[in-house]
């Protein structure tokens, strides 16, 4: 059976059933993938033009209390060399990034108890004080509602917290018993309620993942309606229980990017570093499949190799300035242009305007 009609329906009505998504994922072929990508790229262009938004990623600590089975900076990976950036170092990364055209800074790290809520709030306030025209995004894991509310009050605009998988049994296969899927989903709902532009997402091809799990991830996104979605292939990491597992594939990730764009036309969708790691032109291919964000690294060169979520991560030896030259060329090679702007989600902005809160 020809599955193009399902892609057409997704394009028009932005939704499909669990069985329909599962069928698409289980029976994807090259032609279907190309068809979905062309509609998805057209959709991204309709809402955001040829623009590709950049986010300056500051990986400020690789110390983590959690022990996720897939992650290279998990607590029990003794071979990880741990580091923390000081407030001065973090602010200097942002300063440097600002001069290069970044208008969003993403503070990402392990769940490191050293950075108390007060320290995080102080950092957010400083960043917003130094760069009032920039957005600050946090990606520091699961916190209480009170903590999320404090960060928001301090000025944080956005929060990235991938749900990792919408199938609780698969979640248990990827995480130790101390972590729960329900808490992760609850955190995401809280972030939305607090008015963050919220990012959910998942890994593609994580050990034990089935097409119906991915289909469930899509339905989860459809229900949550996050402003951003981060997906990338699972890549095995040394020193983890999944070190010998195969990586997720480029094609499956590209197809999912296209499905997500068709389901959520206004979503901000990065072509992730993991995608660039499994294929030298992975990020460009991601842009051609519906993505419209890239998140280069602004962390100091000295610590980049240490934020090893997975093996062979790209861009670990470059200065931020070199990264941006290289990225600009990559973006232009696929007929797109780098945007110097905050790159807010347009639907989020429109709703805020209606509520007079901008
Ligand atoms: N501590 C933060 C940031 C986690 S790192 C948090 O909990 O949100 C950001 C993302 O990297 C994770 O959400 C996960 O989806 C991804 N990641 C971790 N290990 C990975 C691996 N081995 N391959 C691909 N992606 C990985």
Automatic annotation (TrEMBL):
Alphabetical keyword list: 4Fe-4S, Iron, Iron-sulfur, Metal-binding, S-adenosyl-L-methionine
Cofactor note (record): Binds 1 [4Fe-4S] cluster. The cluster is coordinated with 3 cysteines and an exchangeable S-adenosyl-L-methionine.
Binding site for [4Fe-4S] cluster: 64, 68, 71
GO biological process: sulfur compound biosynthetic process; water-soluble vitamin biosynthetic process
SMART domains, per database record: BATS (SM00876), Elp3 (SM00729)
Binding site for S-adenosyl-L-methionine: 164, 184
Protein name, entry field: [FeFe] hydrogenase H-cluster radical SAM maturase HydE
InterPro entries xref list: Aldolase_TIM, BATS_dom, Elp3/MiaA/NifB-like_rSAM, FeFe-hyd_HydE_rSAM, HydE/PylB-like, rSAM, rSAM_sf
Cofactor(s) for this UniProt protein: [4Fe-4S] cluster; [2Fe-2S] cluster
Residue span(s) of domain Radical SAM core: 50-272
PANTHER family: 3-METHYLORNITHINE SYNTHASE (PTHR43726), BIOTIN SYNTHASE (PTHR43726:SF1)
Gene responsible for this protein: hydE
UniProt: (3R)-3-methyl-D-ornithine binding residues: 139
CDD domains membership: Radical_SAM (cd01335)
Molecular-function annotations in GO: 4 iron, 4 sulfur cluster binding; metal ion binding; transferase activity
Domain of life: Bacteria
Pfam families, per database record: Radical_SAM (PF04055)
């Amino acid at each position: 059976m020809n599955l193009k009609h399902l892609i057409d329906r997704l394009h028009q009505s932005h939704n499909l059933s669990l069985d329909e998504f599962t069928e698409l994922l289980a029976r994807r072929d090259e032609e279907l993938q190309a068809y979905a990508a062309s509609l998805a790229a057209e959709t991204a262009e309709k809402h955001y033009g040829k623009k590709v938004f950049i986010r300056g990623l500051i990986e400020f600590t690789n110390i983590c209390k959690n022990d996720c089975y897939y992650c290279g900076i998990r607590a029990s990976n003794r071979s990880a060399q741990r580091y923390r950036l000081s407030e001065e170092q973090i602010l200097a990364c942002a300063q440097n990034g600002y001069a290069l055209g970044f208008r969003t800074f993403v503070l990402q790290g392990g769940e490191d108890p050293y950075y108390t809520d007060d320290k995080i709030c102080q950092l957010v306030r400083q960043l917003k004080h130094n760069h009032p025209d920039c957005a600050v995004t946090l990606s520091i894991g699961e916190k209480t509602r009170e903590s999320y509310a404090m960060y928001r009050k301090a000025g944080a605009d956005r929060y990235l917290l991938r749900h990792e998988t919408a199938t609780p049994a698969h979640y248990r296969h990827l995480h130790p018993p101390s972590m729960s899927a329900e808490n992760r989903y609850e955190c995401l709902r809280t972030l939305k309620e607090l008015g963050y532009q919220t990012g959910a997402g998942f890994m593609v091809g994580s050990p034990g993942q089935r097409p119906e799990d991915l289909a469930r991830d899509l339905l989860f996104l459809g229900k949550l309606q996050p402003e951003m979605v981060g997906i990338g292939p699972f890549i095995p990491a040394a020193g983890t229980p999944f070190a010998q597992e195969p990586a997720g594939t480029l094609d499956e990730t590209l197809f999912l990017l296209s499905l997500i764009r068709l389901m959520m036309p206004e979503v901000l969708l990065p072509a992730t570093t993991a995608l660039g790691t499994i294929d030298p032109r992975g990020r460009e291919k991601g842009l051609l499949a519906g993505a419209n964000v890239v998140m280069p690294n602004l962390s100091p060169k000295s610590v980049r190799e240490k934020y090893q979520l997975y093996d062979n991560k790209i861009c670990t030896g470059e200065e931020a300035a070199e990264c941006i030259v290289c990225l600009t060329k990559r973006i232009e090679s696929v007929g797109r242009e780098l945007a110097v702007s905050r790159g807010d989600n347009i639907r989020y902005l429109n709703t805020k305007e209606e509520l007079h809160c901008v």
